[in-house]
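User: I'm putting together notes for a lab meeting next week and I want to include a structural view of one of the chains we've been expressing. I don't have a solved structure, so I'd like a prediction I can at least talk through. The sequence is below, exactly as it appears in our construct file.
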Amino acid sequence: MSKDILEIDDNSFDSEVLQSEKPVLVDFWAPWCGPCRAIAPLVEELAAEYGDKIKFAKCNVDDNPITPGKLGIKSIPTLIFFRDGNVVDKVIGMVPKSKLEGVITQV
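Assistant: Thanks for the context. Below is the predicted structure for the 107-residue chain, given as structure tokens.
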């Protein structure tokens, strides 16, 4: 995993995401998920480009079922954008980098 992306779990979600001073993009994924593996390099590129403005994190849904359950995540990959502890946007499935950049520039 990229040095620009923080690995979070059910225990660190509140402190790293909901209480973050910066906006946060959380990539909810699983190792067995093909589309999750396909979108990971895009998220890494975005983290390198926008890491000074937004925090990037990944949460493995198999190892951490509580947080995805609270957020109503039904399919992966799901990328959720948070600002001030609130969900401001959500992207589900494999999408082009330009779609993610569009959301990032809005948060």
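A couple of points you could mention at the meeting. The mean pLDDT is 95. The two ends are 24 Å apart (CA to CA).

User: Perfect, that's what I needed.
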